[in-house]
């Protein structure tokens, strides 16, 4: 079984815009970091994950129907 | 014991039906402020685990009861039973599929998503097999309560599954009307626009 890296504090959320199907699960589970645009696609806040949100972020990553949400040590851009 | 064996089977098929209905709600993007989608997804997951628990009760009580010569092996190995091998075999097949569904779903973030999805479609195979097992092997399949259980399950799934098939899982943007073209601005500056400075805490639309 592949060991998948878990989201950690200080990491950055990334979304794979091709895999995303705009189910909106991430914005429900992690509204502090994810907004939805007018079509339901996520807009991420560019901040590093604060420690108190790590558990929520892990759940949002696991619940994404297409597993399009990821946590990455490097910021976007 | 024999009462527990039969009732747990009936409750299990009802819970299985409820699981299917809740699972269908996900791709249909059903959700509201009071019933957010993640809550419906969690309910789908928890009721499926409850189904598993009821099935374990069903298997243990049937195997432990002396009324019929059924063993624990008959729960997972299909068509080898001394008692009604065909109908019990259907139950075993359905149970094996359900175990595969639950195990792969609990490991979903760690396995290939396409593999998970392919296995998950087998839910629509597991349910009718389980129902046939109940009607064929159930000693009170034709009692009033058995008929009601079967009828409720069949009707609800026959209504819901065609809806799921008719409405593909498509993001709402695919059915949205096209936006009016934005007013074109004259190209004024030949030099490239400066990079926008994003303040911390500000949302950005850039994804890379």
Task: Write out key terms for the chains shown.
heterodimer, A: 77 residues, alpha+beta, two-stranded antiparallel sheet, two-stranded antiparallel ribbon, 4 strands, globular, B: 208 residues, mainly alpha, 7 helices, 0% strand, elongated
Structure commentary:
The complex is a heterodimer of chains A (77) and B (208). Chain A is built from two helices and four strands. Chain A is α+β, with helices and mostly antiparallel strands and 77 residues long. In chain A, the strands form two sheets. A two-stranded antiparallel ribbon of chain A has the order 1-4. In chain A, a hairpin with a 5-residue loop joins strand 2 and strand 3 (42-44). Chain B contains seven helices and no strands. The longest helix of chain B has 28 residues, at 37-64. Chain B is elongated, with a radius of gyration of 25 Å. The interface between A and B is medium-sized, with 31 and 30 residues.
Secondary-structure map with pairings?
The complex is a heterodimer of chains A (77) and B (208).
Chain A: E1 12-15, H1 25-29, E2 34-36, E3 42-44, H2 54-63, E4 69-72
Antiparallel strand pairs in A: 1-4, 2-3
Chain B: H1 2-25, H2 37-64, H3 73-76, H4 85-106, H5 113-121, H6 123-137, H7 144-166
Concise structural overview:
The complex is a heterodimer of chains A (77) and B (208). With 77 residues, chain A is α+β, with helices and mostly antiparallel strands.
- Cα Rg of chain A: 11 Å
What structural class results from the helix and strand content of chain B?
mainly alpha
How many DSSP E strands of chain A? 4
Largest interface: A-B, 31 and 30 residues
Strand content of chain A: 15-25%
Strand order, main sheet of chain A: write it out: 1-4
The run of helices and strands of chain B is HHHHHHH
Give the helix level of chain A as a range of percent: 10-25%
Distance between the termini of chain B: 61 Å
Question: What global shape of chain B is seen?
Answer: elongated
Please report which band the strand proportion of chain B falls in: under 5%, 5-15%, 15-25%, 25-35%, 35-45% or over 45%: under 5%
- Biggest beta-sheet profile of chain A: 2 strands, antiparallel
Protein name (chain A): Ferredoxin
Membrane topology (chain B): Multi-pass membrane protein
Transmembrane segments (chain B): 6-26, 47-64, 84-107, 119-135, 141-161
Organism (chain B): Catenuloplanes indicus
């Amino acid at each position: 079984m592949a060991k998948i890296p878990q989201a950690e504090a200080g990491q950055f959320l990334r979304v794979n815009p091709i895999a995303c199907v705009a189910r909106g699960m991430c914005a429900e589970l992690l509204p502090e970091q994810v907004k939805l645009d007018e079509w339901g696609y996520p807009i991420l806040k560019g901040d590093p994950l604060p420690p108190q949100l790590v558990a929520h972020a892990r759940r949002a990553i696991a619940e994404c129907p297409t597993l399009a949400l990821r946590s990455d040590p490097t910021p976007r851009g | 014991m024999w009462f527990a064996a039969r009732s747990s089977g009936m409750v299990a098929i009802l819970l299985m039906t409820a699981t299917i209905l809740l699972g269908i709600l996900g791709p249909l993007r059903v959700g509201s402020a009071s019933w957010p989608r993640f809550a419906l997804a969690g309910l789908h997951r928890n009721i499926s685990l409850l189904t598993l628990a009821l099935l374990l009760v069903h298997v243990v009580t049937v195997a432990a009861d002396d009324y019929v010569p059924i063993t624990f092996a008959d729960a997972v190995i299909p068509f080898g039973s001394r008692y009604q091998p065909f109908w019990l075999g259907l139950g075993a097949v359905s149970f094996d599929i359900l175990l595969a569904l639950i195990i792969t779903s609990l490991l979903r973030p760690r396995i290939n998503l396409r593999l998970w999805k392919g296995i998950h479609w087998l839910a629509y195979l597991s349910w009718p097999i389980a129902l046939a097992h109940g009607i064929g092997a159930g000693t009170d399949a034709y009692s009033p309560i058995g008929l009601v259980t079967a009828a409720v399950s069949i009707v609800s799934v026959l209504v819901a599954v065609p809806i799921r098939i008719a409405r593909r899982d498509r993001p709402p943007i695919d059915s949205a009307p096209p936006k009016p073209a934005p007013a074109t601005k004259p190209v004024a500056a030949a030099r490239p626009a400066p990079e926008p400075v994003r303040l911390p805490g500000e949302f950005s639309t850039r994804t890379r």
